[in-house]
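In this section we walk through a basic example: taking a raw amino acid sequence and producing a predicted 3D structure, encoded as discrete structure tokens. The instruction is simple. Fold the sequence below.
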Amino acid sequence: MTSDKTPGTGRSSSDAHRLLDLLNALGSTTFRRLLWQRAAELELTYAQSQVLFYVGHHPGCHMGNVAKAFGVTLAAITQIVDRLEQKKFLTRGMDPGDRRVYALELTAEGKALVEELETLQIQGLKAVLERMSDRDRNRVLKGLEALVKAAIEEQRATGGSQEFRRKSNSD
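The resulting token sequence is shown next.
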């Protein structure tokens, strides 16, 4: 039997639905709720938190790169950056190499917040992983590595942004 990889049909469609269901289930678990509860206490939107994480992993990045990484307009990123500046989590400065663009940096408060939120994520994931056997943990990690690799390949093939990879993956 051959695998049907036509979008919207066959096994790949079924697998895609199953993966989406699993990712949604994972996203609603307790550790995720704790993370976003903390963000909500600071009146931080999901988009704002994602920009903070991105800038934390790409210090000095340009606003245009952030917009490209998230597939949104520069105007949308500008609004998010405006809010984050108001909250004193990041600063927007001139790039000495190109005065037409702004370089983004986390403030000390922004760095502390990113560290706190990442610690919550790590603690939550660690607790989940500790409930799994070594074999299952290794299978999950290998599977996710393969998923990310395939997603990057798909983006390259379709001309999408490759910026979603975390800096730690390219070090």
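Looking at the output, two observations stand out. The first helix runs from residue 10 to 27. The helical segments are 10-27, 30-41, 46-57, 63-70, 74-86, 108-130, 134-158, 167-170. In the next section we compare this with other chains.
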